[in-house]
Design brief:
By secondary structure, the protein is an alpha/beta fold. The protein has helices at 19-32, 56-67, 88-98, 111-114, 162-170, 181-189; strands at 7-12, 36-41, 73-75, 105-110, 131-135, 146-147, 150-153. Helices cover 29% and strands 16% of the residues. It is globular.
Amino acid sequence: MSTDRRLGVLGGTFDPIHYGHLRAGEAAEELLKLDEIRVVPSHDPPHRALDPRASAFHRFALAALAIDGRSRWRLSDGELTRPGPSYTAHTLRSLHAEGWKASQIFFIIGTDAFAEIATWYDYPAVLDLAHFAVVSRPGTAASAGQSAGISYVNADTPDISSTDIRARLAAGRSIAGLVPPAVERYIVNHRLYGSSAAERSA
């Protein structure tokens, strides 16, 4: 494997995946000149009090639809097939086993999640397993520039959350413009998150 290649890792529960996730990945891809982005849905997210609403199968399918047509983006089932909590440290070490070096891996994370990194499993060792690409979130800018092992990506990411999307669907409201059209169709067709086929015309 070429040591010049740069791998972005975009992890998350993706319950469901939305334009906020995609825009964060795009911003990191552009600024950091990433050669590939690996999208990694979590199986058992340790920082989430409740289990994901949609099954791992559905969340994997939604992510596949969301990144369809993006030539540098790949979908990984690494966390979905690994038993136990989906720890980032385990995922990054599995990439090392594939031949990626820590200096080649850029873990894409929002400013809000990065603020809690001291609570993560295997902290602070996890910081040495990859470069962290910290992407600004609405109302929370990323620090300027770059520091050891951390790149700050200031981008105009949309103010969208999976929690709000699920609430909208449960209330029978439209989610048009919040997720890619193919993702919206899948959610409605499979009646995920309390949605119904009638919402297609909403």
